[in-house]
Amino acid sequence: MSPEEIIIAPVVTEKSNDGLQEGKYTFKVNKKATKVEIAKAVEKLFSVKVLNVNTMKVNGKTKRVGYHTGKTSDWKKAIVTIDTNPQDTTYLSKGGKEEKVSKKYKDSIEEFMGA
Question: Are 47 and 40 contacting, i.e. CB atoms less than 8 angstroms apart?
């Protein structure tokens, strides 16, 4: 699946807006997507570093229009925690020499509300 097929839409509620300060973003995702696929899709689409992904299945509600009753569809929700303070990583290469790797990560998702 492509990242555009995995991430369907952002979920904008009062509770999800409270998590934005902690770096937690809520998305409606494909029901067949795994946590690893969701993390890779968010990293690719928004250029951020994903620390944690929590998923949950949301059951549809029973609705009634006049005499007829029906059910809205089930969907999957993912709460993605991103790194709000990305830093350079250092490691030792051959010969004990320190190497720095600086990846260009963003510290927030600006397109979240407009998506």
Answer: no
CATH class of 3-101: alpha beta
Tokens of 1: 């699946």
pLDDT at residue 86 above 80?
Answer: no
Burial of 61 (0-12, 13-18, 19+ CB in 10 A): exposed
Q: Are strands 75-82 and 50-58 parallel, antiparallel or unpaired?
A: antiparallel
Cα 61 to chain centroid distance, Å, stands at 24
- pLDDT tens digits for range 34-48: 999 999 999 999 988
- The sign of the torsion formed by the CA atoms of 24, 27, 31, 36 equals negative
- Residues 92 and 56: their CA atoms lie apart, in Å, by 39
Q: Do 23 and 83 form a contact (C-beta atoms < 8 A)?
A: yes
